[in-house]
Amino acid sequence: MLEIHPSYPALASLVEKYPAHRGSLFxxxxxxxxxxxxxxVQVIDLGDCRRGALRGKRPKTATDPESLLxxxxxxxxxxxxxxxxxxxxxxxxxxxxxxxxxxxxxxxVKPSI
Amino acid sequence: MKGRIPIRIANKRxxxxxxxDLDKIRSEHHICGLLVGTLPHLSQQNVFLGLPAQLxxxxxxxxxxxxxxxxxxxxxxxxxxxxxxxxxxxxxxxRYIEHQRAALESENVKSSEVAQxxxxxxxxxxxxxxxxxxxxxxxxxxxxxEGEGDCAVDAILSEPIPTPSADVxxxxxxxxxxxxxxxxxxxxxxxxxxxxxxWYSPESCSYSTIxxxxxAGIWDFPSNLQDRARYGVFKDLWEQGYFLGGAIRFGxxxxxxxxxxxxxxxxxxxxxxxxxxxTIRPMEIVAHGRLGTATKKTHLFCGWDDEKKxxxxxxxxxxxxx
Lengths: 113, 322
Fold this sequence. Notes:
Chain B: Its EC number is 4.6.1.16. Chain B: Keywords: Coiled coil, Lyase, tRNA processing. The complex is a heterodimer. Chain A is about 20% helix and about 35% strand. The longest helix of chain A is centred in the first third of the chain and has 14 residues, at about 20-35. Chain A is globular. By secondary structure, chain A is of the alpha+beta class. Chain A contains 2 helices and 6 strands. Chain B has 9 helices and 12 strands. Chain B folds into 3 domains: about 1-75 and about 200-220, MutS, DNA mismatch repair protein, domain I (3-Layer(aba) Sandwich), CATH 3.40.1170.20; about 105-175; about 220-320, 3-Layer(aba) Sandwich (Trna Endonuclease, Chain: A, domain 1). Chain B is an alpha+beta fold. Chain B has helices spanning about 20-30, 55-65, 85-120, 120-150, 150-160, 165-175, 210-215, 225-240, 280-295, and strands at about 5-10, 15, 35, 50-55, 70, 205, 245, 255, 270-275, 280, 300-305, 310-320. Chain B starts with a strand and ends with a strand. Chain B has a 6-stranded mixed β-sheet with strand order 3-4-2-1-5-6.
């Protein structure tokens, strides 16, 4: 049924390559594009992690709207590594379609408040 | 091992008993410890905490490794005193008792001066009036009781009430200066810190390295990968100048302060990850990240590499959207 969804064309290749992560990728893509209203959203292939990810810019109203940010979707049921070497956003998708986003940065980064 | 702070070990726990040592540890080595001394008759209170200070295994290990401190196996540092040492101690006790006796005697002289005032005419007159009133009241009460026929009270009141003025005069005369009436009472002084005793010898049971202490069987941290990871993260953060505290209140391993905890709130709550290949559940990231953001802290996941002996950090924060 995924095939008839308007978002399918953008995700098709990654959904087929990494079937285990297709649920979280699909949910996150729609949320980022349509609900969070990010701009210039691309779908990228993280070969070394064997999963797909998203890259884009936050809406113009956000602080620092021109920076290109990476979002990696994952499911609550997974186990993931913490060996990330760049700043990224982790999108945690749960069975009831809730998504929470957490920012992961390498090193000791002071709270932004 | 001159100048090194003695960390006294009991049951593989590290204690600091000297307040100057604790001051040095905090101000020069930015390690805080935790005061665990309480009031003996109210041990559940936690408002007045005092010495000793307990150091966590990481804190104690670091101080010894950096050669700021040595472990002292206090349990074995008290051999039997020699005869001359004991005689000297005994002589000092006797001197102290004599000193107390002399002080007490000079006090007796003073108190009799106070008693002189009580013998003044005014005081005597007032005392007589008070006693008269008391006698009259007692008599009235007795009459009432007789009317009601209460035998017990009768019995008490039938005893003759002694004339107090005569008694007062007698006791006052006793207070006049005498020489040999000092009672044979004295206090025995027990030194708060036994390490001030002459025969205390920590040299034979001081250990300046972790390995030496481990061989002697008094210390065993770190003993496994988990310990090594915790210690590695602690040391790495300490070497960057941070103050570290316990983080059980925030569900982490350490709270990381930019300065003395008395002056600053912590910026970070650190969780130790035993190895870089260790995987975690996303729920942990959500839980730690959420609590951190709610308390204005960043949560640090600290991954320990047991091969290279290095730490890599990942800071977790709520994204602010979604």
